[in-house]
Amino acid sequence: MNEKNFKLVEGIISRSYVSQAQQASRQRENLLTELLAQRRLPEEGWDDYTIQCVLRDLSQMDSNNFIENVGVGDREARVYSSIVRDRHFGLAHGLGRSGDLLAEQPKAAGSSLISKLAHYLVKDILKTSGLTTVKSCLIVPMATTMTIALVLMSLRQKKPEARFVLFPRMDQKACFKSIYAAGLTPIVIPNVLQDDEIRTDLEELERVIAERGSDQILAVLSTTSCFAPRAPDRIIEIAIQCAKWDIGHVINNAYGLQSTRCSHLIVESSRLGRVDAFVQSTDKNLLVPVGGAIVAACSSQGESILREISQLYPGRASVSPLLDVFITALSMGSSGYKSLLRERKEMFEFCKNKMREVMEKYGEKVLDTPNNPFSMAVTLRNYCIEGSATHIGSKLFTRFVSGVRVVDGKSSKTINGVTFEGYESHIDRYPHPYFTISCTIGITKEDIEGFIERLDKDSQPN
Amino acid sequence: MNEKNFKLVEGIISRSYVSQAQQASRQRENLLTELLAQRRLPEEGWDDYTIQCVLRDLSQMDSNNFIENVGVGDREARVYSSIVRDRHFGLAHGLGRSGDLLAEQPKAAGSSLISKLAHYLVKDILKTSGLTTVKSCLIVPMATTMTIALVLMSLRQKKPEARFVLFPRMDQKACFKSIYAAGLTPIVIPNVLQDDEIRTDLEELERVIAERGSDQILAVLSTTSCFAPRAPDRIIEIAIQCAKWDIGHVINNAYGLQSTRCSHLIVESSRLGRVDAFVQSTDKNLLVPVGGAIVAACSSQGESILREISQLYPGRASVSPLLDVFITALSMGSSGYKSLLRERKEMFEFCKNKMREVMEKYGEKVLDTPNNPFSMAVTLRNYCIEGSATHIGSKLFTRFVSGVRVVDGKSSKTINGVTFEGYESHIDRYPHPYFTISCTIGITKEDIEGFIERLDKDSQPN
Amino acid sequence: MNEKNFKLVEGIISRSYVSQAQQASRQRENLLTELLAQRRLPEEGWDDYTIQCVLRDLSQMDSNNFIENVGVGDREARVYSSIVRDRHFGLAHGLGRSGDLLAEQPKAAGSSLISKLAHYLVKDILKTSGLTTVKSCLIVPMATTMTIALVLMSLRQKKPEARFVLFPRMDQKACFKSIYAAGLTPIVIPNVLQDDEIRTDLEELERVIAERGSDQILAVLSTTSCFAPRAPDRIIEIAIQCAKWDIGHVINNAYGLQSTRCSHLIVESSRLGRVDAFVQSTDKNLLVPVGGAIVAACSSQGESILREISQLYPGRASVSPLLDVFITALSMGSSGYKSLLRERKEMFEFCKNKMREVMEKYGEKVLDTPNNPFSMAVTLRNYCIEGSATHIGSKLFTRFVSGVRVVDGKSSKTINGVTFEGYESHIDRYPHPYFTISCTIGITKEDIEGFIERLDKDSQPN
Amino acid sequence: MNEKNFKLVEGIISRSYVSQAQQASRQRENLLTELLAQRRLPEEGWDDYTIQCVLRDLSQMDSNNFIENVGVGDREARVYSSIVRDRHFGLAHGLGRSGDLLAEQPKAAGSSLISKLAHYLVKDILKTSGLTTVKSCLIVPMATTMTIALVLMSLRQKKPEARFVLFPRMDQKACFKSIYAAGLTPIVIPNVLQDDEIRTDLEELERVIAERGSDQILAVLSTTSCFAPRAPDRIIEIAIQCAKWDIGHVINNAYGLQSTRCSHLIVESSRLGRVDAFVQSTDKNLLVPVGGAIVAACSSQGESILREISQLYPGRASVSPLLDVFITALSMGSSGYKSLLRERKEMFEFCKNKMREVMEKYGEKVLDTPNNPFSMAVTLRNYCIEGSATHIGSKLFTRFVSGVRVVDGKSSKTINGVTFEGYESHIDRYPHPYFTISCTIGITKEDIEGFIERLDKDSQPN
Fold it and tell me: Does the structure's ipTM exceed the value 0.90?
């Protein structure tokens, strides 16, 4: 309530109560003041009530919410359903303008402001995650892999003749397809096995570059977060190669933000070699619904790439994924986000120990994958469930465990004409079948205990 | 409530009241039954209450909402903020899977079902709009123009050597840029003036095709909905040419769904010539927040293009824009949507008459643009506001009128190296300055009267 | 958003957009300014968005919503469930203090303000309903009839020896019981039949007063709104008698606010005779959920009675019913409320005509009850449904028609020792059976047509 | 979703996903099944999502939410504002019928069911609080003290000649006034000082009974929860006296449910003597907004009194306070409620220790009040804040500490003609000034630490 209205209230109820209320009201307003002035994560997360107040304040700045507004344009952000209007807090104009995702909209000062603030908050989140040298970031309302396609398309504009993208093998369809979506051709670089762990074959990578010629190669698309027994790619060494050969380097850091180790690898890669941009999912890292990605860069060169990407997306985009991030960042605060990161790490260790304990009873081994901070894999030599080893994923799913993947290494798959032997293994032939799981942000002790219990129940050595 | 629970309730309150309530509960369930069985718009729109009940029922089908679910995958749709969770009704898994926007998600039966149903409803909406021969449609959670880029990228996969897209001039930046976003090169086809109206130059179009060679040309990108005095493109004739020369044809039908005349043009174009796909905005046509587009096709060939487009988008996408469409379609119902279409048409006539009445006082003329069913333009020879003719748009904006565009035809603009003389005129030199407005779906009598009043107030002949 | 925050926003997005938004934000704030300054119904109803903003602003004034608040009292308005907190907009301290419903609460300036404003708005609603001379009103979070008991208890404090309340017969249990709830003894005054209509027997009333002695009689409890063929009591004449004999007069105006004719009767009664207070339901008149009543008075004496009533209720009361009234009053606005009154009247006439049309087919008559503006009754001589006349109420209820009451005049009922012959007839013996219905505020043409149709369907002359 | 609809869904998405979802949907339905079958607190609290689903299911059972309903009665539960409708989940018919708060409503099976279930849950809560022998309870949508008045009015119906209520002095205005609200006359029984603690004077009580004669005395109104240094009344001994003299006994157990010690006292009082009913607040004990009270009894006789009370309230009452209790009980579950009780007890000890630690620095003493489990009092001999001892309550309030009461024992107050010396001390003359605070359910460590810190800051010995 503004000063004038508070004054009028004093004519209705006792001045001293009003003055107390006014002071309290200012304290809440000061949270917004701090956000606008400092433009970073609040130390403590805001309560839902404050967030809702601020969202209402900001959405009031969009013209479709002006009480006197009349609209005679082609796009006036009229919303038919009150369910829809309410769920978007009256924000309807979307993001960006005239082919620039970051451009302000004259009709939507509130949405524009939310976009700016969300970008500040996300930059702070990236730093908190260990990406201390991050220069710039861009929130894109598209899937991580579609965003990777956009990054590649942007790179291509500078090196239009280069058709190839080198792809250290990572058996995920969407990521592989993003290269085609950008109108480019992938060259898969097979991995190598080091003890239990699957790692990037740097020699093969360099060999292919030399063979094809660096002017034919647009970029390397490397990966950090992945399922064990694959390890994150050796991105520092890749970055050094890319710098050496003047080749682009895009890192798929899908859910890597959750681990300061991944962040450290990216910082070092950017410092010692070339990283054009790295892309991460909003849903997997920030606990929002699927729908957005964050492109970021640690170099000044990367900064200009981000600007280009924002100008490559023609038209207005949904503000919804960015809004989820904005709300969540304010709700977490810096300390809340740090707790989540710490807890995830603890849960990973907790899970690994529990897993060892239980699966050794069945003569199984938790594979030794020291470089993968998210995921663990367990051999499937004896263990089975309801008489089947290969179907334990679906069996567990009917017991309401989601996320277990069984890999027998025997199937092959062809995507856009490229055949992957031992699909899902990230390598043609892995020594044994296994199942793999992940401990990602937000996982709880109850999740892990519930999983281990259902894993153990009714199961027997084969 | 299920039968068993109703039975138990009979032990607590009188059987006859319970039986009445159970019957009423079934009536509401029957609305869903009808939707699932008939898969088209309900005749009458559903009340918000029913919609919310159904959304809850469907979101309960997603694994993250199962009460016994434990998740050990990389993506478990955990949502941190309850504000965020509530605004998405607990739907968090997004759309699509493994690089197919239409693929079902095992973890998200509810979201998958909403997606299927939304597609059925949108197809019915298209038919109701007059697109009676529509074969297939695809809801894409991206801007209209980004979606056009996706369509062009999809076409290019079949004709990889064709680099050019013919673009009958339409001065909207995002649309023009969509061609670049697809990695292609536009060739602008200048328009011609016919009396007051700006129209497609079909001869020039054919001349360019012949000159460049049809194998160099991927597609024509034509436009239906646009600002007067430009008329919708002559898409029937363009379609015939495209068929003749075996060139793709994509129609930007941005807000064309609102006019059965546009729909008729598309139906005829598809019947007599070639139309690969036409793209429209969800926000402009269906009164939802910015964020989505609909690609549709009337031909079997188009149907297969749509499938390819859905497989071109790698990764999972936000379900949010599609959800808005789903809610809105159920809320409108067939009769509600028809009323909106009818009222828009009436308002367009009402506005044109009012405009003539008022602006003739200032010696201005409402331009004669019989082919544009959305927009009208008024000369600016004498009329000015606060002493300025060119700034009447911004002046009116400060009076809370949004959407008025003043075009003086004197500015030129260069986008991606291409220069447009008389930018915003759609033609190098239009005889006089004018302003242009639109009457789009959802516009009310109050909007028009409010606009006319503020237009008239404080203004004077120059 | 406050000035300081708007200033900071100018460092983030363009000043001109911010300034426009600030101006629009002020327009919305001005609605509240107007309410605080004028303290009456807004001419036009507020949109839901504005109402929600204001509710948030006001609830921020309660100490439990202060972000820095710590509480060490016995009542700190902590709320466990966020569902509960949200549905009350964070308002948790209730109404009143130390045995005064109207007292301000130091911990709850916001709730106190809402209470004051709601009282201003309700006073304005009463005036709009035709109660032009109303002096004072009190919103009580209890049933109408419990509130009547409270009024009687309050009157008794001034005339402690008077034990009797005269009650012109009105066959509604709760109302009759309210006399007992106040610890008093009713004397039922039988009605008389005038043509089809049942009316107050003024002579019998005066006879009883004379017989018992006016010092034994605390008050007359009269009724305006009731089911046809009973008419509103002759309250003007009763008021004159009460003045003459120095007896209290309380009017049960349950749903009488909907008819300016009832209001007129009350105004005249207050002018020409004695009316201590009149009581009406919030739910029946203002379309809110059941839970509150309004006591009002047109005389200065009544004003002081209202103060006493507010001090008679010990303890804090639920703010919830008052909050519903506050929201609804702002949402209706003066013009919205007037429309509702007008439409109800039109619907009453519409229904009566339709009813005549249909029921005459069955040889039935709409009873001639010119003094009842809400309700109508129809004879049941031939008409029956599924072979039964007496059960048409329950039959229609299973066809989802609620509110039809069949009165066969044959049953008698004993309440607290008093026997009513021909219970529900308001008279011992009504000439024929009939059914009675009401057209109350908010009724729609669809209601009436739906009712008439189901009444007509499958029915036949007996 | 019902079986039929799930079947239809199988025609749209894969059967195996549907079957999984159906199974999960049943798990949620089973929570309701369990509630309906067992009619007690769930062991674990329900998540908000489940509660909202159940509320929707139940509100669908009320006729105003039937989609085909047409209403022609005087009360059709139409709700004007969608804000209002939504906040009550569409429940609008209120509680009770024809002067019985517990009666089922034909038009509102859902509301009726909620009422029944809420009563079962509250009974279970009472048991969990230690009231193991509770026979019956009644949730009343009125203030605790108004409810006490209702209980007294109900008792009076059986002993109409008894005018007096004995009231062991408790300096709270609303409670004292409740006796007058019931039309009765209080006789205050002064307390005695035992060391630091203020206790019931049993001898004086018996003396007054003997003096007045037990047939003149309707009841004793005793108190459990109160501010230190007053202790809970000696209710066991009072109950024995009441049994001996055949006098009613009503216990004001305002916030006593929070302490198993109070519950134990009530159980023993009921076992060894006479307790007609005990009354407690819903807001103070169950963390809901102000608005309701619970009357309960451990004896069969009490059970019949409760039935009478429910029939004494004429008319329909707001369901809102009961609904808050229903939601909160489901949200807490048995284990959640037990945790709250345990934590409160711990916080009380924590606070007492902290208080001693800090206030001894100022030479103050935490008074020795071993019988009061909620509240503690601290002498004010030296401590002052901003130069004032008497105003530390208001000073702390401006520092956002609510609930501190300073008692200097010097003021006297006259209520309804009765003068209390040393008002707020519960005794004419307490040896020293003090302040008193409470640790009630929901209090957190942050509250206590925040309070102690602000108490200590800027303060100095006098």
Answer: yes
CA within 13 Å, CB half, B299: 20
D contacts of A24 (beta carbons < 8 Å): 400
Q: How far apart are CA D360 and CA B293, in angstroms?
A: 71
Q: What pLDDT score was predicted for residue A203?
A: 98
The tens digit of pLDDT for each residue in C326-373 reads: 999 999 999 999 999 999 999 999 999 999 999 999 999 999 999 999
Would you state the pLDDT for residue A391? 82
- The token duo for D406 is 């300073």
Residues of A in contact with D24 (CB under 8 A): 400
User: Subunits with at least 3 CB pairs below 8 A relative to chain D?
Assistant: A, B, C
Confidence of residue D82 (pLDDT cuts 50, 70, 90): very high
The rounded distance, in Å, linking the Cα atoms of D13 and D8 is 9
Chain A CB contacts of D400 under 8 Å are 24
pLDDT of residue D462: 47
Q: Give, in degrees to the nearest 5, the angle at Cα B52 between B47 and B57.
A: 130
Q: Quick check: B365 and B224 in contact, CB under 8 A?
A: no
Which residues are CB-contacts of A289 (< 8 A; sequence separation ≥ 6)? A283, A321, A324, B77, B79, B84, B88, B91, B92, B93, B94, B318, B319, B320
Q: Is the pLDDT of residue C460 over 80?
A: no
**Was B60 annotated as part of a binding site?**
no
Within 10 A of D40 (CB to CB), how many other CB atoms are there? 18
Contact between residue B155 and residue B250 where contact means Cβ atoms under 8 Å apart? yes
Task: Give C393's pLDDT tier (boundaries 50, 70, 90).
Answer: confident
Query: Cβ separation of C20 and B82 shorter than 8 Å?
Result: no
Q: Residue B40: is its pLDDT beyond 60?
A: yes
* B207 annotated as belonging to a binding site for a ligand: no
Report the distance separating Cα B92 and Cα B62, nearest Å.
Answer: 8
Which among C70, C106, C331 has CB closest to D401?
C70
- Name the residue in chain B with its Cα closest to that of A318: B291
C125: which 2 tokens? 């609603």
Query: What pLDDT score does C325 carry?
Result: 98
Give pLDDT, residue B243.
97
Q: C433 Cβ partners below 8 Å, 6+ apart? A: C379, C380, C381, C389, C390, C406, C407, C408, C409
What is the torsion angle, in degrees rounded to the nearest 10, for the CA atoms of residue D24, residue D29, residue D31 and residue D34? -130
Copy the structure tokens of residue D231: 């202790």
Beta-carbon separation of A24 and D397 below 8 A: no
Could you tell me what percent of chain A has a pLDDT over 70? 99
* Contact state of C24 with B400 under an 8 Å Cβ cutoff: yes
What are φ and ψ of residue A101, in 5° steps? -60, -25
D229 prior amide bond cis, ω within 30: yes
* The pLDDT of residue A394 is above 90: no
Q: Helix, strand or coil for residue C283? A: helix
How many CA within 13 A on the CB side of residue D7? 5
Given this model, what pLDDT does residue B460 score? 60
Taking an 8 Å cut-off on Cβ atoms, the answer to whether D400 and A82 are in contact is no
Task: Judge whether B211 and B246 are in contact, CB under 8 Å.
Answer: no
CB contact under 8 Å between D24 and B61, yes or no, is yes
Give me the pLDDT at residue D461, please. Answer: 55
pLDDT band for D226, please (50, 70, 90 cuts): very high
Residues in chain A with CB shorter than 8 Å from the CB of B359 are: none
The answer, yes or no, to whether residue B388 has pLDDT greater than 80, is no
Residue A394's closest chain D neighbor by CA? D16
A381 among the known binding-site residues? no
A399 carries a ligand binding annotation: yes
CA distance A187 to C6: 52
Whether the CB-CB separation of A79 and A62 falls below 8 Å is answered with: no
Domains in chain B with CATH codes: 3-92 (1.10.10.2160), 114-325 (3.40.640.10), 337-459 (3.90.1150.10)
Min Cα–Cα distance to chain C from A88, Å: 12
